[in-house]
Amino acid sequence: MLEIGCGAGHLTVELAARGLEIDAVDASQAMVDATAGRALQAGFAEHVTVGSADVHALPFDSDHFDLVVAVGVIPWLHSPGDAVEEMARVLRPGGEMILTADNRARVTSFTDPRAILALSPLKRARVALRRRSGLASSRLDSPGRIDRLLTEGGLRPVGRRTVGFGPLSFLGRPLFSEARGVRINDRLQALADRGTPVLRSMGWHYVVRATKL
After folding, report:
1. How far apart are CA 155 and CA 137, in angstroms?
2. For a surface tag, which of 55, 110, 153, 164 has the fewest beta carbons within 10 Å of its beta carbon?
């Protein structure tokens, strides 16, 4: 499998512990080094190959991997459509891709005035300016847009869910104690997992599994 954006290697080690042979890549050499060290320390160095790579131009042959995973990557990319196409290119036909996106329709986008402002055209213009200046800035995407990117990349979404319903806040301040907030999150997540209309699409993160056609 290929893991995009391996970061400090926490997920890499968890996947290796499940018997997967992994190529893990990240754009940051510091993160590449951290993942290599963590894999070595955990005893999985023989099962993990780590390297630096740009997801928009992956250094792998087409139709090479059975599985591609990209957790927490899409929100930070300047061209997510190109990245999805590139990840699809290295995935074999019938292989699967799992990725996450920060959900534009998350419940907190409609309960806190600051979050509502984050969806405004002014905020989007500020993010675009920061990106043109070379400054990092994450982006919110709707589940529908992510599904379209996958479809345009030659993939078919086969499993979807949203996860995370907190912390609930007003003007940036938590509305509940941490313990109560966790209980509320767990209750809302259980309802979403059961397919409760509207709520099932309002988690903080959108997680999707897709198959290459």
Report:
1. 27
2. 110
User: Judging by beta carbons within 10 Å of its beta carbon (0-12, 13-18, 19+), is residue 161 exposed, middle or buried?
Assistant: middle
C-alpha–C-alpha distance, residues 51 and 56, integer Å: 15
In sequence order, what are the residues at sequence separation of 6 or more whose Cβ sits closer than 8 angstroms to the Cβ of residue 64? 2, 90, 91, 92
The verdict on residue 45 lying in a domain is no
CATH code of the domain containing 205: 3.40.50.150
Vertex 64, ends 76 and 74: CA angle to 5°?
10
Q: How many domains does the chain have?
A: 1
pTM across the whole model: 0.87
Asked whether the beta carbons of 25 and 50 are under 8 A apart, the reply is yes
What is the rounded radius of gyration, in angstroms, for the C-alpha atoms of the chain? 18
3-state SS class at 206: strand
Banded pLDDT at 167 (limits 50, 70, 90): confident
How many CB atoms are located within 10 Å of the residue 77 CB?
21
Cα separation, 131 vs 78, whole angstroms: 7
According to DSSP, residue 53 is labeled: -
State the chain's mean pLDDT as an integer.
91
Residue 3 lies in a domain: no
Q: Crossing angle of helices 80-89/143-152, nearest 10°?
A: 50
Q: Is 195 left (phi over 0), alpha (psi -120 to 50) or beta?
A: left
**148, two tokens:** 């379209």
